[in-house]
Amino acid sequence: MQKLFTLLMCCTLILSCNDNKKGEKRKILPESSGKINNLSVVIENDLWEGQIGEAIRETLASPVDGLPQDEPLFTMSQIPPSVFSGFVAQNRTVLKIETAKNSEVKIASNVFARPQRVVLVSGSSNEEIAKLIKANSKRIIKALKDTEIKEKQRRMALSLHKTKAIEENLGISIKFPSAYRIGVEEDGFFWLRKDITTGTTNIMIYELPYGTIKRNDSLAGDIIKLRDSIGKAHIPGPVDGSYMITEQAYAPFIFETTIDGKPALETKGLWDVKNAFMSGPFINYVIDDKANNRQLVLEGFAFAPSVEKREYMFELEAILKSVKFK
User: Fold this and answer.
1) One domain for residues 122 and 192
2) How far apart (Å, rounded) are the C-alpha atoms in residues 84 and 96?
3) Would you state the pLDDT for residue 76?
4) What average pLDDT is seen over the chain?
5) Alpha-carbon distance 152 to 35, whole Å?
6) β-bridge mates for residue 200, sequence order
7) Are 210 and 295 in contact (CB under 8 A)?
8) What does each C-alpha distance from 173 to 183, 286, 288, 305, 319 come to in angstroms?
C-alpha cells in the first residue's frame, strides 16, 4: 500500500509539472468529500498512540487563535493504512505517515480525488517523523487550510448575494452568501449581517487614509483604538450608551499576510460590549491599498453564545479573503 501511495504521489507531481497552456489529459478522479476542516490522518494505530500521534495532535489540533474557548484547527480522524482505499481515500484533506529511508514532507494535489490536498510525511524513525511534523507545521497547516478556504468559497458561491453597492462605493468585489443582509450602508461604511441559530455573524467594510495604521510598537494599541472608535460610531449594543469594543483582558493575535496580492495585517481577538454582557471573536484585516492612497479594513465577528464558533469564524475568514480590488 505504501509503494502504491508513493507511486501515485510521484505521478501526480509529474502531471502537475507537465501541465501547459494547451492542457494535458487529466486523470479521471472521483469527487472529494468531507466536512470543512475535517482531516484524515493515515497512520498505524501504534504510531497514532505514540510520539508521532502526539506531534500531530500538538500541531494540527492546536487551538484556533482568537476564540473564547479551545477549539482545534482540524477535527481529525485516524485511519489505519490497511483500510485507506476506495471511498475512505476520497476525503478532501489527508495527512499520510510512512516509515521510509528518505526523510521528507511532500504536498500533492488530487491524488485520490478532486479537489484534494495530500501531505505525506516520511522518515526512518518515529523521532525523525515527529521532528519533521513540528519543523514543517506552518507549511502543512497553510496547505491544508488554503484547501479548505477554497472549498468553503466554492460552496458559498452556489448562492451569492447580488449587490453592486460595495463595488460602486469602495472599488472592490467581495463574495458573500445571499443569507447575509446589508444592515448599514452609510458614508462608505458597510455592516453585513446573517442570522444564525444562537445569534449573528457580521462583516464590516470601510476605508482609512493610507498610513492610518502603522507597523510600529503601538500597532496593537492602534488597532484596538480603531476598532473601539468604529464600534462606538456604528455598532450599538442592546442598551443606551452601549457599543462594541475590544476585549482588553486578552491581547489580540497579529500576523503579517497578503490579501489579493496586497500587504495586510491580520488581527484575531475577542470583542465585548461596553455596559452590556455580550462578547465573541473577531478577525480583522487592514489592507494596504497604496495605489488608491488608502487602507481597506475588512472585519468579521460572531455573536454565538454557548456554542462552538470555529466554523462561523472560518466562514467569515473565507468571505474576507475573497475580496478583489478593481
Assistant:
1) no
2) 10
3) 98
4) 92
5) 10
6) 195, 303
7) yes
8) 18, 16, 16, 31, 11
Pairing of strands 189-196, 199-209: antiparallel
In this structure, the answer to whether residues 145 and 261 fall within a common structural domain is: no
Cell of 167: 463595488
Q: What is the mean pLDDT of residues 11-28?
A: 51
How distant is the alpha carbon of residue 89 from its chain centre?
23
Give the whole-angstrom CA distance, residue 2 versus residue 313.
37
Q: Are residues 272 and 141 in the same domain?
A: no
* Residue 10 banded pLDDT, cuts 50, 70, 90: low
Domain extent at residue 209: 160-325
Question: Residue 249 is part of a domain; what is its CATH number?
Answer: 3.40.1000.10
- pLDDT tens track for 213-236: 999 999 999 999 999 999 999 999
> Is 13 a residue whose pLDDT tops 70?
no
Contacts 24+ apart (CB under 8 A), 216-224: 219/254, 219/265, 220/251, 220/252, 220/254, 223/252, 223/254, 223/265, 223/267, 223/284, 223/286, 224/248, 224/252
Which of 156, 186, 219 delimits the end of a domain?
156
**Residues 31, 119: Cα–Cα separation, whole Å:** 18
Kindly indicate the confidence band of residue 23, based on its pLDDT and cuts at 50, 70 and 90.
very low
Question: At a CB cut-off of 8 Å and minimum separation 6, what does 231 contact?
Answer: 243, 244, 245, 246, 271
- Whether 17 shows a pLDDT value over 80: the answer reads no
